[in-house]
Specification:
Distance between the termini: 126 Å
Strand order of the largest sheet: 19-20-21-18-17-24-25
Largest sheet: 7 strands, mixed
Oligomer: single chain
Number of helices: 39
Shape: elongated
Strand content: 15-25%
Number of strands: 27
Helix content: 40-55%
Low-confidence stretches: 422-429, 543-549, 849-858
């Protein structure tokens, strides 16, 4: 027999999940627990006849084959369950590690368990009656606060929409979710209101509301919901004592406060946002002391201004004309600037609104100080983000400077707050980056990175490993191409590392970068390590090379091409292994999407189009639809890109393990044709590239370009070479391979070795090797192979000096003689030096240049 059960004191999510599971598993019977919440009881009293529930006390006590447990992860304590009974759990919270051995589970992050099951009903197109849809809507709405709680997700909205389409009655939903309190509940609610007090833990506001009752009060959790709606706090704990027991009900609105873990310290349990505990033989005072201790241990610190601020700040001086401020605003796209004095002290803040109005009214020559916001509007790095938000609201500004000892050290913007809010709603998945680094890197490299982080910390810099290394690490394909970005002075850090560990530093002062050459240092696992000052970029016009300035790690990542390349790992001592994901890179890695970071990204640098395809094909990802649209819109800009930049990207594609995939995709997107009208991927490309890769693994990239162009008219192939700004040697290769392909019939038909040598000797060895690999004619392959292996090394025994020694006068005839001697050697007409000498005299005589000396002697 199969049954479906849930937890005691069932709420609407539990009751609705029972019935939804029964529709998905028709062979299983849903059993209501002995105790259900009052509003659930009242609903079933009115509408239960239409719902197929059974009572738990009426179930059979033997023969349980499978038990489906919904809306809880606690193993049911039921008679009839044995080791042979299969347990299957369905819940919308992350599954813990304490499920019974052999049990199975399913679920995903959603606002309610009902959502999970309704999603399956939708997919299966299972009919749902209006009363059933109303019950399911009650389950979804109760646990999501009518789709307003922080844990609500897209699937909850989809489920609610579908249920409304099936006839869910929202009037009934409202009535039963807003059930009036009983007299005992109202009395307890007033006591909780009077006793409630607020305490701070790690920057979070926590409400603790204790009360004593002399009679049992049902559904204290309902009162906790009322208190949460009434007060603005990050978590609340309701403590109710009856006789010698204290019931604790906990609710949280912050990911930093896991009330499930805190309730576990009190002998209870639950989930991160909702939990409870019952402590027997305890007093309110003793429970509150234990609660305070648990809060101190489990509440994570609130995000501070110093953690989210941008360190590199664009500033204005008080005497700067408003017109210049407008120019900077347009260049950087900022909504405001701090105004600082000579000693970096903050004097005020100028916003876009003031700049626009001043310029509009012809006041561009007026100083910034005349229109800036003045007064206290700064925070310190240890202040909470809430304080910065309060300043924005009270002063009507979108930026708050962060100061240390009165001097500007960073800035928080509205964008920072929005991104922080987004991360709070959808936190990063748990990724053990430190463990991944330990597995992927040799010990010496890991020690090197930690040492760099330590030195950076002592210099008050922040250090990060960024970009492709992090991307590949997270997809389990680590590489040792490590780029380090420094919030601070990259050159100073590189010099400090060389001074401490040895080696020497190559400096590029213009770009704020340095390469630490590790030869002669304490580390030998890497040849070098690049240090790059965090920077931002702006473009003066489309397709131009970027102008760069120093900046923060967030702005440095913001200038990159795709979200999957915006990830960073902090190497600071206190934050080693912390993953930074400001732009959704982890989500796109998991969804296997290549998503451009900015809508103008391809306009600013059209070569990113080729990069997008290269990443897509290398990783087995898909270019996200909007990104594909932006690629199409930017194709017209490719003709304006220099050939050097284009061939650099193409040659990177040729270096991939399967370049033909990228080329087919580039042709499909019309990218190749935008580079040059006659450049396209041939259907036979995969076979030809595979032949080259297998037989010539280290082939120069130009070989693959030659494969692309060898079937084209020679003029077209040469035109493509000029478009890509190939070097002279590369242009020669393209022309030679193209010519060899067109000469295959002649090569196959040459009868004499001498003729073959004369035909092939004008060509370079790379072109010959490629032609041999690519030809599908065995005779051509054999001829080129013989030429390269044997024939081109054949030379006559006689030389020009030897001809002079024989008595011949040097002149143009020597060339004819030596060529004839080589041809004769190749064709087997002569085999000895004496035979060569006789042939040489014969040619000499035919030219009429001299008589045989032997005749004169006679």
């Amino acid at each position: 027999m199969n049954i479906i059960v849930t937890h005691e004191h069932a709420d609407f999510d539990a009751a609705a999940s029972l019935f939804a599971a029964a529709k998905l598993y028709p062979a299983a019977t849903p059993y209501l627990p002995r105790r259900v919440n009052r509003n659930v009881h009242d609903f079933l009293t009115l509408y239960g006849d239409s719902l197929r529930y059974a009572r738990l006390d009426d179930r059979p006590l033997h023969g349980l084959q499978r038990v489906i447990v919904v809306d809880t992860q606690a193993a049911p304590s039921l008679k009839g369950i044995s080791r042979a009974t299969g347990l299957h759990f369905i819940d919308h919270h992350p599954f813990g590690k304490d499920l019974p051995a052999g049990a199975t589970h399913e679920g995903f992050a959603a606002g309610s368990t009902t959502t999970l099951l309704v999603s399956q009903l939708m997919q299966a197109r299972t009919p749902v009656s209006p009363i059933e849809a109303t019950l399911f809507m009650l389950g979804v709405y109760e646990d999501t606060g009518a789709l307003t709680y922080g844990g609500t997700g897209l699937e909850d909205f989809r489920a609610a929409t579908w249920l409304f389409e099936q006839g869910a009655n929202l009037d009934i939903v409202h009535d039963f979710l807003h059930h009036p309190l009983t007299p005992l509940q109202r009395e307890l609610y007033q006591s909780l209101l009077q006793s409630a007090r607020f305490v701070e833990f790690a920057g979070h506001t926590v409400m603790i509301a204790p009360a004593r009752v002399t009679h049992y009060v049902e559904e204290i959790s309902t009162l906790a919901h009322h208190l949460r709606d009434l007060y603005d706090c990050d978590a609340l704990f309701v403590l109710v004592q009856e006789d010698d027991s204290v019931q604790v009900v906990a609710r949280s609105t912050s990911d930093a406060i896991d009330v499930g873990a805190i309730a576990g310290e009190l002998g209870g349990g639950g989930h991160a946002r909702a939990a409870a505990a019952l402590m027997r033989g305890a007093s309110l005072d003793s429970v509150e002391r234990r609660l305070q201790h648990a809060l101190g241990a489990h509440v994570r610190p609130m995000v501070t201004a110093g953690q989210i601020m941008s360190r590199s700040v664009s500033t204005l001086t008080p005497d700067m004309p408003m017109r210049d401020a407008e120019m900077l605003m347009k260049r950087y796209g900022h909504e405001g600037f701090p105004v600082v004095g000579a000693n970096s002290e903050v004097l005020g803040l100028l916003t876009r609104r003031e700049i626009d109005r001043a310029v509009q009214h012809g006041l561009g020559d007026q100083p910034v100080s005349a229109y800036m916001h003045k007064g206290a509007m700064t925070v310190g790095p240890d202040d909470t983000v809430e304080r910065a938000r309060a300043i924005m609201l009270s002063r009507g500004v979108g930026q708050v400077p962060v100061v240390v000892d009165g001097r500007l050290t960073g800035i928080i913007t509205r964008t920072d707050l929005i991104k922080l809010w987004g991360r709070t709603q959808t936190p990063l998945p748990e990724i053990d980056v430190v463990r991944m680094l330990e597995r992927a890197l040799p010990d010496e490299v890991l020690i090197l990175l930690k040492a760099a982080g330590s030195v950076a910390h002592k210099k008050q810099f922040s250090l990060y490993v960024v970009g492709g290394f992090v991307r590949d690490l997270l997809v389990s394909e680590p590489n040792f191409d490590i780029d380090l970005v420094v919030e601070g002075n990259a050159i100073a850090l590189a010099k400090a590392m060389a001074k401490r560990f040895g080696g020497h530093v190559h400096i590029h002062a213009r770009f704020g970068t340095a390469k630490w050459m590790l030869e002669g240092s304490s580390f030998s696992a890497l040849a070098s390590l690049d240090f790059i000052t965090a920077r931002r970029e702006y473009y003066t016009h489309p397709t131009a090379l970027p102008q760069v300035e120093s900046s923060s790690i967030q702005q440095d990542l913001h200038r990159r091409d795709f979200t999957i390349n915006t990830l960073a790992i902090c190497l600071d001592e206190m934050r080693f292994g912390q993953l930074l994901d400001f732009f959704g890179g982890v989500g796109d890695l998991r969804a296997k999407l290549v998503r451009v970071l900015h809508n103008l990204s391809f306009v600013e640098d059209p070569t990113r189009i080729l990069r997008a395809v290269r990443y897509e094909q290398r990783l087995g990802f898909v270019i996200e639809p909007r990104t594909a649209e932006l690629i199409s819109d930017a194709l017209d800009l490719l003709p304006r890109v220099s050939g050097e930049r284009l061939n650099n990207e193409l040659f990177l594609i040729f270096a991939e393990a399967a370049p033909q995939k990228s080329l087919h995709r580039l042709s499909e997107l019309s990218v190749l044709q935008a580079i040059h009208p006659e450049l396209r991927a041939d259907p036979a490309l995969e076979r030809l590239f595979a032949q080259v890769r297998a037989a010539w693994p280290d082939a120069p990239p130009v070989v693959y370009l030659g494969v692309l162009t060898r079937d084209l008219p020679l003029a077209s192939a040469e035109s493509i070479g000029r478009r890509l700004a190939l070097s002279k040697s590369q242009e020669a290769f393209i022309a030679e391979l193209n010519t060899l392909h067109r000469e295959e019939a002649r090569i196959a038909e040459v009868a004499r070795p001498s003729g073959l040598v004369r035909l092939l000797e004008p060509f370079g060895d790379d072109a010959l090797r490629a032609a041999e690999l690519l030809s599908d004619q065995p005779a051509v392959c054999a001829a080129i192979r013989r030429y390269r292996a044997e024939l081109r090394a054949v030379k006559p025994a006689l030389t020009g000096d030897r001809l002079i020694a024989l008595g011949m006068k040097r002149g143009p005839v020597f060339r004819d003689i030596l060529e004839a001697l080589r041809d004769a050697r190749l064709d087997g007409a002569v085999t000895t030096t004496a035979e060569e000498e006789r042939l040489a005299w014969q040619i000499w005589r035919r030219q009429g240049e001299a008589e045989d000396p032997m005749v004169q002697t006679r």
